[in-house]
Amino acid sequence: MRLERLFVFPILFCLGCKPPTPAEQMNSMLSWLATARMTGDGWLRHTTPDTYSRQTLELSSERIGQIASDLLKSPPSEVDTATLDTLFTRSRIRVKAMARLIAAKNAPDFGRQLDSLDADEKLVKQLADSIEHRQ
Amino acid sequence: MKKILQVTLGIVTSVGGFLEIGSVTTAAQAGAAFGYELLWAILLGTLCLIFLVEMSGRLSAVSKHTIVAAMRERFGFPFFFIVLVGMTLVAFLVLIAELGGIGFSLQLLTGIGFPWWAIPVSLLVWLLMWKGTFGLIENGASLLGLVTISFVVAAIKLHPDWSGVAAGLAPTMPQSDKAHYGFIAVSILGASISPYLMYFYSSGAIEDKWDESYVGVNRFIAGFGMTFGGFLSMAVLIVAALALQPRGIQVDTFDQSALSMTTALPRWGFYLFAISMLFACFGAALEISLAIAYFFAQGFGWNWSEDLEPSKDARFAFVYTIIILIAAVPLVFGIDPLKVTIMSMALTAATLPLAIIPFLFLMNDPVYMGKHRNGWIGNSVVAIIIVISFVLAVISIPLQIIGG
Questions:
Q1: Pick from A12, A53, A13, A106: which is nearest to B108 by CA?
Q2: Model confidence, pTM
Q3: A10 and B110 in contact by Cβ < 8 A?
Q4: Looking at the domain A20-134, which fold is it?
Q5: Which of A93, B130, B255, B362 is surrounded by the most beta carbons within 10 Å?
Protein backbone atom coordinates (compact mmCIF):
# COMPACT_ATOMS: atom_id res chain seq x y z
CA MET A 1 0.00 0.00 0.00
CA ARG A 2 1.36 3.41 -0.90
CA LEU A 3 1.93 5.77 1.99
CA GLU A 4 -0.50 8.47 0.84
CA ARG A 5 -3.38 5.96 0.94
CA LEU A 6 -2.92 5.80 4.69
CA PHE A 7 -4.05 9.42 4.78
CA VAL A 8 -6.63 9.21 2.00
CA PHE A 9 -8.66 6.53 3.77
CA PRO A 10 -9.27 8.54 6.94
CA ILE A 11 -10.27 11.58 4.88
CA LEU A 12 -12.77 9.54 2.86
CA PHE A 13 -13.94 8.04 6.13
CA CYS A 14 -14.56 11.55 7.49
CA LEU A 15 -16.46 12.62 4.42
CA GLY A 16 -18.88 9.78 5.05
CA CYS A 17 -19.69 10.94 8.54
CA LYS A 18 -23.29 11.71 9.31
CA PRO A 19 -25.33 13.41 12.02
CA PRO A 20 -26.54 11.26 14.96
CA THR A 21 -29.32 8.80 14.13
CA PRO A 22 -32.72 9.02 15.90
CA ALA A 23 -31.72 5.94 17.94
CA GLU A 24 -28.55 7.70 19.13
CA GLN A 25 -30.52 10.84 19.95
CA MET A 26 -33.01 8.77 21.93
CA ASN A 27 -30.10 7.24 23.86
CA SER A 28 -28.82 10.75 24.67
CA MET A 29 -32.32 11.69 25.80
CA LEU A 30 -32.45 8.62 28.05
CA SER A 31 -29.01 9.45 29.42
CA TRP A 32 -30.14 12.92 30.50
CA LEU A 33 -33.41 11.66 31.94
CA ALA A 34 -31.42 9.08 33.92
CA THR A 35 -29.00 11.80 35.03
CA ALA A 36 -31.91 13.88 36.31
CA ARG A 37 -33.36 10.87 38.11
CA MET A 38 -30.06 9.84 39.73
CA THR A 39 -29.42 13.43 40.78
CA GLY A 40 -32.95 13.62 42.19
CA ASP A 41 -32.49 10.35 44.09
CA GLY A 42 -29.19 11.68 45.41
CA TRP A 43 -30.76 14.89 46.65
CA LEU A 44 -33.55 13.03 48.43
CA ARG A 45 -31.02 10.72 50.08
CA HIS A 46 -28.76 13.71 50.94
CA THR A 47 -25.84 12.26 48.98
CA THR A 48 -25.46 15.29 46.68
CA PRO A 49 -25.46 18.93 47.82
CA ASP A 50 -28.31 21.33 47.00
CA THR A 51 -26.40 23.60 44.62
CA TYR A 52 -24.94 20.76 42.56
CA SER A 53 -28.32 18.99 42.39
CA ARG A 54 -30.12 22.14 41.29
CA GLN A 55 -27.50 23.04 38.70
CA THR A 56 -27.42 19.50 37.29
CA LEU A 57 -31.21 19.38 37.03
CA GLU A 58 -31.22 22.73 35.23
CA LEU A 59 -28.54 21.44 32.87
CA SER A 60 -30.52 18.22 32.31
CA SER A 61 -33.65 20.20 31.50
CA GLU A 62 -31.69 22.33 29.03
CA ARG A 63 -30.14 19.27 27.34
CA ILE A 64 -33.48 17.47 27.17
CA GLY A 65 -34.90 20.53 25.39
CA GLN A 66 -31.97 20.66 22.94
CA ILE A 67 -32.12 16.97 22.07
CA ALA A 68 -35.91 17.11 21.68
CA SER A 69 -35.61 20.09 19.37
CA ASP A 70 -32.98 18.33 17.20
CA LEU A 71 -34.89 15.07 17.16
CA LEU A 72 -38.19 16.66 16.22
CA LYS A 73 -36.62 18.49 13.26
CA SER A 74 -36.37 15.13 11.50
CA PRO A 75 -38.52 12.82 13.62
CA PRO A 76 -38.27 9.05 13.33
CA SER A 77 -41.05 7.66 11.15
CA GLU A 78 -41.63 4.75 13.55
CA VAL A 79 -43.34 6.85 16.24
CA ASP A 80 -45.96 9.57 16.36
CA THR A 81 -44.30 13.00 16.46
CA ALA A 82 -47.00 14.52 18.68
CA THR A 83 -46.50 11.74 21.25
CA LEU A 84 -42.77 12.37 21.31
CA ASP A 85 -43.21 16.14 21.55
CA THR A 86 -45.66 15.85 24.45
CA LEU A 87 -43.47 13.39 26.32
CA PHE A 88 -40.28 15.39 25.91
CA THR A 89 -41.92 18.70 26.81
CA ARG A 90 -43.48 17.16 29.90
CA SER A 91 -40.16 15.66 31.00
CA ARG A 92 -38.28 18.91 30.44
CA ILE A 93 -40.82 20.90 32.47
CA ARG A 94 -40.79 18.27 35.20
CA VAL A 95 -37.00 18.36 35.55
CA LYS A 96 -37.06 22.16 35.60
CA ALA A 97 -39.73 22.03 38.32
CA MET A 98 -37.56 19.65 40.34
CA ALA A 99 -34.72 22.18 40.21
CA ARG A 100 -37.10 24.83 41.60
CA LEU A 101 -38.32 22.47 44.33
CA ILE A 102 -34.74 22.04 45.52
CA ALA A 103 -34.45 25.80 45.90
CA ALA A 104 -37.71 25.71 47.89
CA LYS A 105 -36.46 22.63 49.84
CA ASN A 106 -39.80 20.94 49.14
CA ALA A 107 -38.93 17.25 49.39
CA PRO A 108 -42.49 15.79 49.29
CA ASP A 109 -43.39 17.47 45.98
CA PHE A 110 -39.92 16.73 44.69
CA GLY A 111 -40.47 13.02 45.42
CA ARG A 112 -43.74 13.05 43.49
CA GLN A 113 -42.11 14.71 40.48
CA LEU A 114 -39.31 12.17 40.66
CA ASP A 115 -41.80 9.26 40.55
CA SER A 116 -43.49 10.83 37.51
CA LEU A 117 -40.13 11.34 35.85
CA ASP A 118 -39.44 7.65 36.40
CA ALA A 119 -42.64 6.83 34.53
CA ASP A 120 -41.72 9.21 31.69
CA GLU A 121 -38.28 7.65 31.44
CA LYS A 122 -39.86 4.20 31.04
CA LEU A 123 -42.06 5.51 28.20
CA VAL A 124 -39.07 7.07 26.45
CA LYS A 125 -37.20 3.78 26.88
CA GLN A 126 -40.05 1.88 25.20
CA LEU A 127 -40.06 4.32 22.29
CA ALA A 128 -36.27 4.17 22.00
CA ASP A 129 -36.40 0.37 21.90
CA SER A 130 -39.05 0.39 19.20
CA ILE A 131 -37.00 2.84 17.09
CA GLU A 132 -33.86 0.77 17.54
CA HIS A 133 -35.58 -2.49 16.60
CA ARG A 134 -37.12 -1.09 13.45
CA GLN A 135 -33.89 0.50 12.18
CA MET B 1 18.10 2.58 53.31
CA LYS B 2 18.04 5.91 51.50
CA LYS B 3 17.32 4.13 48.20
CA ILE B 4 14.47 2.10 49.75
CA LEU B 5 12.90 5.33 50.97
CA GLN B 6 13.33 6.88 47.55
CA VAL B 7 11.74 3.87 45.87
CA THR B 8 8.80 3.99 48.28
CA LEU B 9 8.35 7.72 47.84
CA GLY B 10 8.73 7.38 44.08
CA ILE B 11 6.06 4.67 43.90
CA VAL B 12 3.71 6.61 46.18
CA THR B 13 4.12 9.81 44.16
CA SER B 14 3.67 7.91 40.89
CA VAL B 15 0.39 6.50 42.20
CA GLY B 16 -0.77 9.84 43.61
CA GLY B 17 0.16 11.66 40.42
CA PHE B 18 -1.18 9.08 37.97
CA LEU B 19 -4.76 10.19 37.58
CA GLU B 20 -5.53 13.43 35.82
CA ILE B 21 -8.48 14.80 33.98
CA GLY B 22 -7.82 12.83 30.79
CA SER B 23 -7.49 9.45 32.45
CA VAL B 24 -10.53 10.01 34.69
CA THR B 25 -12.74 11.32 31.88
CA THR B 26 -11.83 8.66 29.32
CA ALA B 27 -12.12 5.83 31.85
CA ALA B 28 -15.49 7.11 33.09
CA GLN B 29 -16.79 7.46 29.52
CA ALA B 30 -15.56 3.97 28.70
CA GLY B 31 -17.21 2.40 31.74
CA ALA B 32 -20.49 4.26 31.29
CA ALA B 33 -20.76 3.39 27.59
CA PHE B 34 -19.20 -0.07 27.32
CA GLY B 35 -18.96 -1.55 30.82
CA TYR B 36 -15.70 -3.46 31.32
CA GLU B 37 -15.07 -3.88 27.58
CA LEU B 38 -12.38 -1.18 27.35
CA LEU B 39 -10.27 -2.26 30.32
CA TRP B 40 -7.77 -3.70 27.82
CA ALA B 41 -7.05 -0.17 26.53
CA ILE B 42 -6.02 0.96 30.03
CA LEU B 43 -3.91 -2.19 30.44
CA LEU B 44 -2.19 -1.63 27.09
CA GLY B 45 -1.63 2.08 27.78
CA THR B 46 -0.20 1.33 31.22
CA LEU B 47 2.18 -1.33 29.87
CA CYS B 48 3.45 1.08 27.20
CA LEU B 49 3.84 3.79 29.83
CA ILE B 50 5.82 1.54 32.19
CA PHE B 51 8.42 0.87 29.49
CA LEU B 52 8.60 4.46 28.24
CA VAL B 53 8.88 5.96 31.72
CA GLU B 54 11.55 3.42 32.67
CA MET B 55 13.53 4.35 29.54
CA SER B 56 13.09 8.08 30.23
CA GLY B 57 14.55 7.67 33.72
CA ARG B 58 17.33 5.34 32.56
CA LEU B 59 18.38 7.75 29.80
CA SER B 60 18.65 10.61 32.27
CA ALA B 61 20.36 8.59 35.00
CA VAL B 62 22.98 7.14 32.67
CA SER B 63 23.59 9.93 30.16
CA LYS B 64 22.82 12.93 32.42
CA HIS B 65 20.74 14.23 29.53
CA THR B 66 17.01 14.73 29.54
CA ILE B 67 15.08 13.30 26.57
CA VAL B 68 14.70 16.76 25.08
CA ALA B 69 18.37 17.69 25.43
CA ALA B 70 19.47 14.36 23.97
CA MET B 71 16.95 14.62 21.13
CA ARG B 72 18.08 18.13 20.24
CA GLU B 73 21.73 17.05 20.32
CA ARG B 74 21.23 13.77 18.43
CA PHE B 75 18.69 14.84 15.76
CA GLY B 76 19.44 18.55 15.36
CA PHE B 77 17.35 21.68 15.59
CA PRO B 78 14.86 21.09 12.70
CA PHE B 79 13.61 17.81 14.18
CA PHE B 80 13.54 19.28 17.69
CA PHE B 81 11.52 22.24 16.40
CA ILE B 82 8.86 20.00 14.82
CA VAL B 83 8.52 18.04 18.07
CA LEU B 84 8.48 21.29 20.04
CA VAL B 85 5.55 22.66 18.02
CA GLY B 86 3.56 19.41 18.23
CA MET B 87 4.21 18.76 21.91
CA THR B 88 3.65 22.36 22.99
CA LEU B 89 0.30 22.49 21.21
CA VAL B 90 -0.90 19.24 22.75
CA ALA B 91 0.50 19.95 26.22
CA PHE B 92 -1.06 23.42 26.13
CA LEU B 93 -4.48 21.92 25.42
CA VAL B 94 -3.97 19.40 28.22
CA LEU B 95 -3.03 22.27 30.54
CA ILE B 96 -6.28 24.09 29.67
CA ALA B 97 -8.15 20.87 30.41
CA GLU B 98 -6.40 20.39 33.78
CA LEU B 99 -7.02 24.00 34.85
CA GLY B 100 -10.62 23.52 33.76
CA GLY B 101 -10.75 20.32 35.81
CA ILE B 102 -9.62 22.21 38.91
CA GLY B 103 -12.26 24.87 38.23
CA PHE B 104 -14.91 22.23 37.70
CA SER B 105 -13.99 20.48 40.98
CA LEU B 106 -14.33 23.81 42.77
CA GLN B 107 -17.66 24.33 41.02
CA LEU B 108 -18.83 20.99 42.42
CA LEU B 109 -17.74 21.97 45.92
CA THR B 110 -18.96 25.57 45.93
CA GLY B 111 -21.56 25.94 43.20
CA ILE B 112 -19.59 28.84 41.68
CA GLY B 113 -19.18 28.29 37.92
CA PHE B 114 -15.79 27.08 36.71
CA PRO B 115 -15.04 30.17 34.53
CA TRP B 116 -14.86 32.24 37.73
CA TRP B 117 -12.10 29.98 39.02
CA ALA B 118 -9.90 30.21 35.92
CA ILE B 119 -7.85 33.25 36.99
CA PRO B 120 -7.48 32.44 40.73
CA VAL B 121 -6.54 28.84 39.95
CA SER B 122 -4.02 29.85 37.30
CA LEU B 123 -2.47 32.38 39.66
CA LEU B 124 -2.19 29.75 42.38
CA VAL B 125 -0.54 27.27 40.01
CA TRP B 126 1.84 29.99 38.84
CA LEU B 127 2.62 31.06 42.40
CA LEU B 128 3.50 27.52 43.40
CA MET B 129 5.73 27.23 40.35
CA TRP B 130 7.38 30.56 41.12
CA LYS B 131 7.95 29.97 44.83
CA GLY B 132 8.01 26.17 45.04
CA THR B 133 10.77 23.64 44.59
CA PHE B 134 10.82 20.52 42.46
CA GLY B 135 10.42 18.36 45.56
CA LEU B 136 7.33 20.28 46.64
CA ILE B 137 5.72 19.91 43.23
CA GLU B 138 6.73 16.28 42.72
CA ASN B 139 5.96 15.01 46.20
CA GLY B 140 3.49 17.47 47.69
CA ALA B 141 0.97 17.45 44.88
CA SER B 142 1.29 13.70 44.34
CA LEU B 143 0.83 12.89 48.03
CA LEU B 144 -2.39 14.92 48.02
CA GLY B 145 -3.35 12.96 44.91
CA LEU B 146 -3.41 9.78 46.98
CA VAL B 147 -7.03 10.63 47.75
CA THR B 148 -7.75 9.16 44.29
CA ILE B 149 -7.35 5.73 45.92
CA SER B 150 -10.97 6.31 46.95
CA PHE B 151 -11.87 5.13 43.41
CA VAL B 152 -10.42 1.72 44.28
CA VAL B 153 -12.41 1.63 47.52
CA ALA B 154 -15.58 2.52 45.58
CA ALA B 155 -14.89 -0.13 42.94
CA ILE B 156 -14.41 -2.85 45.57
CA LYS B 157 -17.52 -1.75 47.47
CA LEU B 158 -19.60 -2.16 44.30
CA HIS B 159 -18.63 -5.88 44.15
CA PRO B 160 -17.70 -6.11 40.47
CA ASP B 161 -18.01 -9.40 38.63
CA TRP B 162 -14.31 -10.25 38.59
CA SER B 163 -14.64 -12.73 35.72
CA GLY B 164 -16.21 -9.92 33.66
CA VAL B 165 -13.36 -7.62 34.69
CA ALA B 166 -10.82 -10.26 33.60
CA ALA B 167 -12.66 -10.70 30.28
CA GLY B 168 -12.46 -6.93 29.71
CA LEU B 169 -8.67 -7.13 29.78
CA ALA B 170 -8.76 -8.89 26.39
CA PRO B 171 -9.64 -6.70 23.38
CA THR B 172 -13.07 -7.32 21.86
CA MET B 173 -15.19 -5.53 19.26
CA PRO B 174 -18.65 -4.36 20.32
CA GLN B 175 -21.79 -5.30 18.38
CA SER B 176 -22.74 -1.67 17.77
CA ASP B 177 -21.32 1.84 18.14
CA LYS B 178 -17.91 0.74 16.86
CA ALA B 179 -16.72 4.26 15.99
CA HIS B 180 -17.47 5.53 19.50
CA TYR B 181 -15.77 2.47 21.00
CA GLY B 182 -12.70 3.05 18.81
CA PHE B 183 -12.61 6.73 19.70
CA ILE B 184 -12.71 6.07 23.44
CA ALA B 185 -10.02 3.38 23.09
CA VAL B 186 -7.77 5.85 21.26
CA SER B 187 -8.49 8.55 23.86
CA ILE B 188 -7.61 6.17 26.71
CA LEU B 189 -4.31 5.36 25.03
CA GLY B 190 -3.71 9.07 24.41
CA ALA B 191 -4.41 9.80 28.07
CA SER B 192 -2.18 6.94 29.27
CA ILE B 193 0.85 7.43 27.03
CA SER B 194 1.24 11.13 27.77
CA PRO B 195 4.54 12.43 26.38
CA TYR B 196 4.59 15.25 28.93
CA LEU B 197 4.87 12.62 31.66
CA MET B 198 8.05 11.23 30.08
CA TYR B 199 9.58 14.69 29.68
CA PHE B 200 8.67 15.54 33.27
CA TYR B 201 10.04 12.24 34.62
CA SER B 202 13.25 12.55 32.64
CA SER B 203 13.79 16.13 33.82
CA GLY B 204 12.94 15.07 37.37
CA ALA B 205 15.73 12.50 37.28
CA ILE B 206 18.19 15.30 36.49
CA GLU B 207 16.62 17.59 39.12
CA ASP B 208 17.03 14.78 41.67
CA LYS B 209 20.63 14.21 40.49
CA TRP B 210 20.21 10.57 39.53
CA ASP B 211 23.25 8.66 38.33
CA GLU B 212 23.89 5.13 37.10
CA SER B 213 23.30 3.73 40.58
CA TYR B 214 19.65 4.75 40.20
CA VAL B 215 18.93 2.45 37.25
CA GLY B 216 17.40 -0.17 39.58
CA VAL B 217 15.50 2.42 41.64
CA ASN B 218 14.11 3.83 38.40
CA ARG B 219 12.98 0.37 37.26
CA PHE B 220 11.08 -0.23 40.52
CA ILE B 221 9.44 3.19 40.51
CA ALA B 222 8.38 2.96 36.85
CA GLY B 223 7.19 -0.63 37.18
CA PHE B 224 5.30 -0.52 40.46
CA GLY B 225 4.24 3.13 40.38
CA MET B 226 2.71 2.97 36.92
CA THR B 227 1.13 -0.45 37.56
CA PHE B 228 -0.65 0.79 40.68
CA GLY B 229 -1.57 3.96 38.79
CA GLY B 230 -3.10 1.83 36.05
CA PHE B 231 -5.21 0.10 38.72
CA LEU B 232 -6.60 3.52 39.68
CA SER B 233 -7.70 4.19 36.10
CA MET B 234 -9.28 0.74 35.96
CA ALA B 235 -11.10 1.48 39.22
CA VAL B 236 -12.59 4.65 37.69
CA LEU B 237 -13.81 2.60 34.74
CA ILE B 238 -15.27 -0.12 36.98
CA VAL B 239 -17.07 2.44 39.14
CA ALA B 240 -18.61 4.06 36.05
CA ALA B 241 -19.52 0.65 34.63
CA LEU B 242 -21.38 -0.32 37.81
CA ALA B 243 -22.88 3.02 38.81
CA LEU B 244 -23.68 4.75 35.51
CA GLN B 245 -24.02 2.13 32.78
CA PRO B 246 -26.98 0.23 34.34
CA ARG B 247 -28.89 3.54 34.50
CA GLY B 248 -28.05 4.39 30.87
CA ILE B 249 -26.06 7.50 31.83
CA GLN B 250 -23.40 8.50 29.31
CA VAL B 251 -20.66 10.85 30.45
CA ASP B 252 -21.16 13.96 28.30
CA THR B 253 -20.34 16.45 31.06
CA PHE B 254 -18.37 16.49 34.30
CA ASP B 255 -21.60 16.87 36.24
CA GLN B 256 -22.58 13.36 35.18
CA SER B 257 -19.24 11.80 36.13
CA ALA B 258 -19.57 13.32 39.61
CA LEU B 259 -22.52 11.00 40.27
CA SER B 260 -20.42 7.87 39.78
CA MET B 261 -19.08 7.63 43.34
CA THR B 262 -22.40 8.28 45.11
CA THR B 263 -23.62 4.72 44.61
CA ALA B 264 -20.69 3.05 46.34
CA LEU B 265 -20.02 5.74 48.92
CA PRO B 266 -23.37 7.51 49.48
CA ARG B 267 -22.20 9.78 52.27
CA TRP B 268 -18.78 10.85 51.00
CA GLY B 269 -18.70 9.75 47.36
CA PHE B 270 -19.63 13.08 45.84
CA TYR B 271 -17.07 15.02 47.88
CA LEU B 272 -14.36 12.38 47.40
CA PHE B 273 -14.88 12.60 43.65
CA ALA B 274 -14.62 16.40 43.71
CA ILE B 275 -11.54 16.41 45.95
CA SER B 276 -9.89 13.62 43.95
CA MET B 277 -10.39 15.57 40.74
CA LEU B 278 -9.18 18.76 42.41
CA PHE B 279 -5.87 17.30 43.61
CA ALA B 280 -5.32 15.12 40.54
CA CYS B 281 -5.82 18.05 38.16
CA PHE B 282 -3.82 20.39 40.35
CA GLY B 283 -0.82 18.05 40.38
CA ALA B 284 -1.12 17.47 36.64
CA ALA B 285 -1.37 21.23 35.89
CA LEU B 286 1.88 21.80 37.81
CA GLU B 287 3.62 18.92 36.02
CA ILE B 288 2.47 20.00 32.55
CA SER B 289 3.47 23.63 33.11
CA LEU B 290 6.88 22.44 34.23
CA ALA B 291 7.17 19.95 31.35
CA ILE B 292 6.49 22.70 28.78
CA ALA B 293 9.02 25.03 30.39
CA TYR B 294 11.57 22.19 30.57
CA PHE B 295 10.99 21.45 26.89
CA PHE B 296 11.77 24.99 25.79
CA ALA B 297 14.70 25.51 28.18
CA GLN B 298 16.39 22.18 27.46
CA GLY B 299 15.87 22.46 23.70
CA PHE B 300 17.21 26.01 23.45
CA GLY B 301 19.99 25.47 25.96
CA TRP B 302 18.75 27.90 28.62
CA ASN B 303 19.33 27.64 32.36
CA TRP B 304 16.63 25.54 33.94
CA SER B 305 15.71 24.07 37.29
CA GLU B 306 12.61 24.37 39.40
CA ASP B 307 14.95 24.59 42.38
CA LEU B 308 16.64 27.77 41.07
CA GLU B 309 15.38 31.27 41.87
CA PRO B 310 13.37 32.60 38.88
CA SER B 311 15.98 35.35 38.47
CA LYS B 312 18.60 32.64 37.79
CA ASP B 313 16.59 30.95 35.03
CA ALA B 314 14.45 33.85 33.84
CA ARG B 315 13.57 32.42 30.41
CA PHE B 316 12.48 29.11 31.95
CA ALA B 317 10.26 30.99 34.43
CA PHE B 318 8.97 33.24 31.63
CA VAL B 319 7.76 30.23 29.61
CA TYR B 320 5.65 28.75 32.40
CA THR B 321 4.37 32.18 33.41
CA ILE B 322 3.13 32.94 29.90
CA ILE B 323 1.76 29.47 29.21
CA ILE B 324 -0.26 29.34 32.46
CA LEU B 325 -1.73 32.79 31.92
CA ILE B 326 -2.67 32.12 28.28
CA ALA B 327 -4.24 28.78 29.26
CA ALA B 328 -6.60 30.59 31.62
CA VAL B 329 -8.09 32.76 28.87
CA PRO B 330 -10.32 30.20 27.08
CA LEU B 331 -11.61 29.04 30.47
CA VAL B 332 -12.63 32.56 31.43
CA PHE B 333 -14.79 32.58 28.30
CA GLY B 334 -16.44 29.34 29.40
CA ILE B 335 -14.86 26.84 26.99
CA ASP B 336 -16.02 23.35 27.98
CA PRO B 337 -13.07 21.61 29.72
CA LEU B 338 -14.50 18.19 28.85
CA LYS B 339 -14.45 18.96 25.13
CA VAL B 340 -10.89 20.26 25.42
CA THR B 341 -9.94 17.11 27.33
CA ILE B 342 -11.38 14.80 24.70
CA MET B 343 -9.81 16.77 21.86
CA SER B 344 -6.43 16.92 23.58
CA MET B 345 -6.42 13.16 24.25
CA ALA B 346 -7.10 12.42 20.58
CA LEU B 347 -4.43 14.94 19.51
CA THR B 348 -1.98 13.38 21.96
CA ALA B 349 -2.58 10.08 20.18
CA ALA B 350 -2.11 11.79 16.81
CA THR B 351 1.29 13.22 17.77
CA LEU B 352 2.62 10.16 19.61
CA PRO B 353 5.04 9.01 16.87
CA LEU B 354 6.92 12.31 17.23
CA ALA B 355 7.47 11.60 20.90
CA ILE B 356 8.20 7.88 20.71
CA ILE B 357 10.45 7.42 17.64
CA PRO B 358 13.47 9.22 19.17
CA PHE B 359 13.47 6.64 21.98
CA LEU B 360 14.43 3.84 19.61
CA PHE B 361 17.56 5.71 18.52
CA LEU B 362 18.52 7.27 21.83
CA MET B 363 18.10 4.10 23.86
CA ASN B 364 20.44 2.23 21.47
CA ASP B 365 23.08 4.92 21.19
CA PRO B 366 26.25 3.83 23.02
CA VAL B 367 27.33 7.47 23.37
CA TYR B 368 24.35 8.14 25.63
CA MET B 369 23.57 4.75 27.12
CA GLY B 370 26.89 2.89 27.33
CA LYS B 371 26.27 -0.58 28.72
CA HIS B 372 22.70 0.35 29.69
CA ARG B 373 21.43 0.28 26.11
CA ASN B 374 18.09 -1.36 25.39
CA GLY B 375 18.08 -5.12 25.06
CA TRP B 376 15.92 -6.98 22.56
CA ILE B 377 12.91 -6.88 24.89
CA GLY B 378 13.11 -3.10 25.28
CA ASN B 379 13.61 -2.57 21.55
CA SER B 380 10.75 -4.90 20.65
CA VAL B 381 8.46 -3.04 23.02
CA VAL B 382 9.48 0.36 21.61
CA ALA B 383 8.96 -0.97 18.07
CA ILE B 384 5.48 -2.21 19.02
CA ILE B 385 4.67 1.13 20.69
CA ILE B 386 5.82 2.95 17.55
CA VAL B 387 3.51 0.80 15.43
CA ILE B 388 0.65 1.45 17.87
CA SER B 389 1.43 5.17 17.87
CA PHE B 390 1.33 5.29 14.05
CA VAL B 391 -2.01 3.49 13.98
CA LEU B 392 -3.34 5.89 16.62
CA ALA B 393 -1.97 8.89 14.72
CA VAL B 394 -3.77 7.83 11.53
CA ILE B 395 -7.11 6.90 13.08
CA SER B 396 -7.45 9.36 15.97
CA ILE B 397 -8.74 12.42 14.09
CA PRO B 398 -11.25 10.53 11.88
CA LEU B 399 -12.51 8.70 14.96
CA GLN B 400 -12.85 12.02 16.80
CA ILE B 401 -15.08 13.31 14.00
CA ILE B 402 -17.17 10.16 13.70
CA GLY B 403 -17.24 8.73 17.19
CA GLY B 404 -16.29 11.63 19.47
A1: A53
A2: 0.92
A3: no
A4: Four Helix Bundle (Hemerythrin (Met), subunit A) (1.20.120)
A5: B362
